[in-house]
Amino acid sequence: VQPWKENPCLLGDLGHTPLSKKEGVKWQRPRLSRQALMRCCLVKWILSSTAPQGSDSSDGELELSTVRHQPEGLDQLQAQTKFTKKELQSLYRGFKNECPTGLVDEDTFKLIYAQFFPQGDATTYAHFLFNAFDADGNGAIHFEDFVVGLSILLRGTVHEKLKWAFNLYDINKDGYITKEEMLAIMKSIYDMMGRHTYPILREDTPAEHVERFFQKMDRNQDGVVTIEEFLETCQKDENIMSSMQLFENVI
């Protein structure tokens, strides 16, 4: 059994449910249960600092303790994301505990992922992931940017998640994904998961994944993948969606 089959994917549950069954289904706000959210490394990092000892309740719901801080523009953030007001307050409290300055820098991301993936080297992946969250490229992530990104990854639509994934792959942000960029992301994930992953990963595995993805995605064979090619191919090809389950435990 592949280890990443157990956890929430960067692209949600796309590999498990045929897209045709998702179309036309009204989005329902899921419960912010500890069981569901604590599988996301970034949420686990934030909420672990605020969870009272022995707070796991019988129904698995997140215990929301009294919030002394709340972000400016809470109503606006609630409109921008798919988190409730209480969820945003809880996330903000943890964020302020971990980052009193109100900013997360790249070194913090590296520490988070080193903690959750001690068996490998998470440095490069943390760098790429940080840049995907750092929308304006100023080297720091505000709480607002952080929760907007988390909302997309945890509760976004298929289209929103795929656009976010494209942004992650598009390392230099020129609007195209090259084979080299995709390979760099894939290698960083394999490096982070470590050599002790089961099944044992061969050195050439990332390159094989990239070659397979590119053959399908680069429809006009010009050596780059556009956002249109990426979205169209991913949404039509269940094998690609299933392969992207590799991301399941790396957010």
Provide the fold topology:
Elements: H1 19-22, H2 34-37, H3 41-47, H4 74-80, H5 85-98, E1 103-104, H6 106-116, H7 123-133, E2 141-142, H8 143-155, H9 158-169, E3 176-178, H10 179-193, H11 205-217, E4 224-226, H12 227-236, H13 238-243
Antiparallel strand pairs: 1-2, 3-4
Helix pairs in contact: 3-5, 6-7, 7-9, 7-10, 9-12, 10-11
CATH topology-level name of the largest domain: Recoverin, domain 1
Number of helices: 13
Give the biggest beta sheet. Answer: 2 strands, antiparallel
Strand arrangement, major sheet: 1-2
Cα end-to-end separation: 20 Å
Q: Which architecture of the largest domain would the CATH scheme give at its second level?
A: Orthogonal Bundle
Uncertain segments: 1-34, 53-68
Shape: globular
Percent helix, as a range, is 40-55%
Number of domains: 2
Task: Please state roughly what percent of the residues sit in beta strands, choosing from under 5%, 5-15%, 15-25%, 25-35%, 35-45% or over 45%.
Answer: under 5%
Radius of gyration: 18 Å
InterPro entries: EF-hand-dom_pair, EF_Hand_1_Ca_BS, EF_hand_dom, Recoverin
Subcellular location: Cell membrane
Keywords: Calcium, Cell membrane, Ion channel, Ion transport, Membrane, Metal-binding, Potassium, Potassium channel, Potassium transport, Repeat, Transport, Voltage-gated channel
Organism: Macaca fascicularis (Crab-eating macaque)
Question: In words, what does this structure look like?
Answer:
With 251 residues, the chain is mainly alpha-helical. The protein has two domains: 72-155, Recoverin, domain 1 (Orthogonal Bundle), CATH 1.10.238; 157-250, Recoverin, domain 1 (Orthogonal Bundle), CATH 1.10.238. Helix content is 51%, strand content 4%. The protein has 13 helices and four strands. It has helices spanning 19-22, 34-37, 41-47, 74-80, 85-98, 106-116, 123-133, 143-155, 158-169, 179-193, 205-217, 227-236, 238-243, and strands at 103-104, 141-142, 176-178, 224-226. The strands form two sheets. Strands 1-2 form a two-stranded antiparallel sheet. It has a two-stranded antiparallel sheet with strand order 3-4. α7 (123-133) packs across α9 (158-169). It starts with 18 loop residues before the first helix and ends in an 8-residue tail after the last helix. Residues 1-34 and 53-68 have low confidence and may be disordered.
